[in-house]
UniProtKB/TrEMBL annotation, chains A, B:
The keyword Nuclease does not apply. It comes from the Bacteria. One of its GO terms (molecular function) is transcription cis-regulatory region binding. Keywords: DNA-binding, Transcription, Transcription regulation. Residues 15-69 form the HTH lacI-type domain. InterPro entries: HTH_LacI, LacI/GalR-like_sensor, Lambda_DNA-bd_dom_sf, Peripla_BP_I. This is LacI family transcriptional regulator. PANTHER family: LACI-RELATED TRANSCRIPTIONAL REPRESSOR, TRANSCRIPTIONAL REGULATOR. Transmembrane segments: none annotated. CDD domains: HTH_LacI, PBP1_GntR.
Length: 345, 345
DNA sequence: TTGTAAGCGTTATCAA
DNA sequence: TTGATAACGCTTACAA
């Protein structure tokens, strides 16, 4: 009857579930039940509750809900970096998919540092998240312990490796390296070098190199790895190109650990008047935004960034019972990378 | 004496502040005070608490803390999209700066839709965030009401406009348009066209066009706007180039609403054998990753994305009392864009 | 400097 | 189908 007059000493000042209940003339637990659509609320009360919610412009307090249920609708994601060309699409699709089911994403960057990752995981745990996502399979002991003890779904993204326990959603870096090597061998190249990057902590490039090396050895060719000393990727790419094409032994094809390095080499080759791919074929990894725009356009391999984010989100929602499990089973979490044959190789 | 045996009926199973207090032999409020370093805890008790925290591997429950203080250490950020070339660096620097002060960032994408923005803001409010960040100054009435009623610091990013009340951190799109026009006029170009993009909802391009048009009118030149019908930006750029250089009236310089459009035009010009900038100068906006790599490299204007994120975070921390206000005052939130004079104009 | 009591706004549990 | 009561784990207010 009387208008709701909260007049709290503390509190946010916003309408609470009790205000709604009072206005609708029902118990607050009924409002709670109705709003999360768990059934068992009559249509009549439902309508009264709807009206009260609208009148008070009620927004449920998710913090209180999370505390009461010890299961907040939050998912933490630790990713090496947000602004690089690589992970943004994963974050985007991950966040969009979870948002659609009422979950929010907390984000933190590790910058390829296992210690920063551990800090982020520790902080996230304080929000009692419903699930956690990390990148790759290399973590500190502390992170492993935190993840194991959290009792929530944990997904490792990007790097798919056999024989690991946690849910993994990603692709095989070794297979990517093998793909590059097979492609170049099939095109007739034989003096194929591999250029690592200089980002400390990006261990996936080593996996790719190993995949490349294995294929070469299978065909009786000795692998050839070059590690630039320049730190800036464009400079490192140029340095690698010079080192691998000016010596006595000349590469006829070069696989770079990523498209930044390859772009550096491509630009250097233009300046030096070198014909690509005739004198030396160049190949990258990542399919960055500029790669199709270079002249010659860069042959590269596209990692399934968007697909990883979406599938990781789906796996989490399934583990939380918010989504039906997929029909077919098997290695569904191992995604393929697409080789984009363009002009440079 | 006896080891802590929680044995709770509900709860997360993790150690609580009470477990720490019991183990350290102090009251739980003392633990709370000590952990947030508000002083008033003796060194001796502090040491005992530290030991207990370490022994139990205690992680404070931020959900409970947020509920009790009705002031969670969370900041919500609504941004048009994460994976585009534009906003990623803002998200990165924003998140990093806040993380450093113990705040976590909740992220949502609006895809330039004011309705989606409102939904995101409504959901964020449920987490009783410490502050909220939105992009631009165009919101629904509902969003305005939610933001005004939230009673927390709100920052509008990217678009700085005179005479708005909320904290704004950004640059002037009108000034960007004016910058482009002045640069081209100073280089001697006179038949300068402006090409809009076709992304519905990106109203900032219109502001840039207005700035360009104002400068041209000042010099007695009639502005010339072209709006492509193609949706894909590269196609739209090509279409604009053709329309503006093939007719009877030929542009000698074209300003594009963004680098994607400009890149489409640049590639089309190469294919058509047109000399850039001699026959027609091309200019973009955004300084995307590929822009310095194009041939000719793209003259463009770099928006201060990283700076916006960091400054927005600083303004929020200052509003929350976590950081000292800056010494100097004035229009400190209006950032400059850098014109990168490269080869295409 | 430390402690006690009372919330914060929701949901789990149990009873009706 | 609905409701009363007691958590959830922390912090504010107040007292000592």
């Amino acid at each position: 009857m009387s208008p709701p007059t909260p007049r709290k000493r503390r509190g946010s000042g916003r309408a609470t579930i009790h205000d709604v209940a009072r206005l609708a003339g029902v118990g607050s637990i009924t409002v709670s039940r109705y709003l999360k659509k768990n059934g068992y609320v009559s249509a009549e009360l439902g309508a009264r509750i709807d009206a009260a919610v609208a009148q008070l412009n009620y927004v449920p307090n998710l913090v209180a809900g999370g505390l009461a249920s010890s299961r907040g609708k939050i998912v933490g994601m630790v990713i090496p970096n947000i602004s690089g060309p690589i992970f943004a699409s994963t974050i985007q699709s991950f966040s969009d998919t979870l948002n659609r089911h009422g979950y929010q994403v907390l984000l933190a960057s590790s910058y390829f540092s296992a210690e920063q990752e551990e800090n982020a995981v520790r902080t996230f745990l304080g929000w009692s998240p419903a699930a956690l996502v990390v990148t790759g399979r290399f973590h500190t002991k502390g992170t492993e312990a935190l993840l194991a003890g959290a009792g929530i779904p944990v997904v490792e993204t990007w790097d798919y490796h056999p024989r690991r326990k946690p849910i993994q959603v990603g692709y095989s870096n070794a297979e990517v390296g093998a793909q590059s090597a097979r492609y170049l061998l099939d095109k007739g190249y034989r003096r194929i070098a591999y250029v690592l990057n200089s980002v400390a902590g990006d261990l996936s490039a080593l996996d790719r190199r190993d995949g490349y090396a294995a294929v070469l050895r299978e065909r009786g060719i000795k692998p050839w790895t070059y590690t630039p000393t320049e730190l800036a990727p464009f400079d490192a790419g140029r340095q690698a190109l010079e080192a691998l094409t000016r010596g006595r032994r000349k590469a006829d094809a070069i696989v770079f650990a990523n498209d930044n390095l390859a772009a550096g080499a491509l630009l250097a080759s233009q300046r030096a008047g070198m014909r690509v791919p005739q004198q030396c074929a160049l190949m990258g990894f990542g399919d960055y935004a500029f790669s199709p725009l270079l002249l010659p356009s860069l042959t590269t391999i596209r990692p399934p960034g968007r697909e990883i984010g979406e599938l990781a989100a789906r796996r989490i929602l399934q583990a939380l019972g918010e989504l039906e499990p997929d029909q077919r089973n098997g290695r569904l979490n191992l995604l393929d990378c697409e080789l984009l044959a363009r002009e440079s190789a």
